[in-house]
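Regression report. Comparing outputs from two consecutive submissions.

Submission 1:
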Amino acid sequence: MLKNLLYAILLGVGMAACLADRDDAASGITSEEAIATEVTSEDAIPVPNPAEFLIAKGRVGSIRIGMPIDEMRQLKLPGLQLKDTTLRLEGQNYTAHVLSSDISPSGLVIEQQCEPTCQVWRLSIRDDDYKTAQGIGIGSKFSEVQQHYPIDYTAQGEAGFVAVSKAAGFSFVLDKDQLNKIQRNNLKPEDILANTLVKGILVY
């Protein structure tokens, strides 16, 4: 009697295993693949939305000029981390924020103004993953910039030597090592060599 009972139990277990294998086979998934899928889904690292790397007039991704800092902190941006930092401009320290990811560690620097509430004042591109819709970003040539954006003037500022496009709301920080050091303060857009590289972009 006991022997028959044990046999029935073992038979039931064996049939259940066969049915499970048959279901996996019918769905085209092996036991090893099912385990791998489960592990992968649990350990998956969030990937940033490509739209968050788009530079546009008055904004970069979801971060826009004039956005309240409290609203910015509430944004859900998978794969991106927001951290506070301190910038020193014109001899004074200012609170700012850095939005970065594993693929773009230099990220986006978000500067603020607090009058009286804190809002996004300026965005500084530090990583070459960020591009405009025309593909302009860090590493682009000045000639490529001019093809898409009218340059009103060039000047030396606290961020470096910049080429300013008022219509776009961008300042392109140029590689100072490619500029004439003696005439740098008097250089006009037509004086900048075509292959001068963009080292940063300011959105304001």
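Submission 2:
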Amino acid sequence: MDLTDRVVVVTGGAGGIGAALGRRLVAEGAAAVVLADTAADRVRAVADGIGPTAHAVVVDAADADQVSALVADVERQYGRIDLFCANAGVATGRGLDAPDADWERAWRVNVLAHVYAARAVLPGMLARGEGYLLHTCSAAGVLTAVGDAPYTATKHAALGFAEWLSITYRDRGIRVSALCPQGVDTPMLADGLAAGHLGARVIAASGAVLTAEQVADVTVASLAEERFLILPHPEVADYARRRVEDPDGWQAALRRMVVRLGPGG
């Protein structure tokens, strides 16, 4: 996809990967980048810092009505949406002890937000015969987020949904990419480390933490190639092969890591 003169929406745009994507998309020549987030002050500050082609809106990506209104407003103002980046996400750092409220929030933000975005934006894209969906699914959707059961389950669901969209709509002009980074230096990782979450400590111990800007660079390059699976950490492909070829050995290695880095590790 050539990003020049494109109209783009990015959810989760107040920081981390979303903000980095916003900056990079504008640098690539996008006509307008609409950054959506629930954190009003932060998303407005990001948009103001990027410049006049970036615009901030306060929207909950996990609310179907708000997403529908966002899409309608952008289409009314700019005539179309060329690329919708469903980027909002939440982690819990919990296992079976996670309360139902955490599971519900993870499901709504990590999965249903992608469904709501697709429902709202696809009619216009299909009518034009072209459009692009970018879903941030995480390497947890390809592998496993040790220490976080809701995150693992919902990110697997998000990746499955993105694949379904690609299979169903690509021949009708719709491109879909699933962005699956592993460790990224974002507030989500920082908050997890501060809380002592096992998954965050595993990521930090791996020594393979990228900046959000590096992830944005890889993402833009992959959008140009219209690749379905975007892996800013190329080693994730090797991990995935090992996971499929030797699931028992893969799980054993993760269990050893959990023992080493678990409470008191």
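Expected: both submissions complete independently.
Actual: both completed, but the second showed a warning that disappeared on reload.
Relevant detail on submission 2: The chain has one domain: 7-261.
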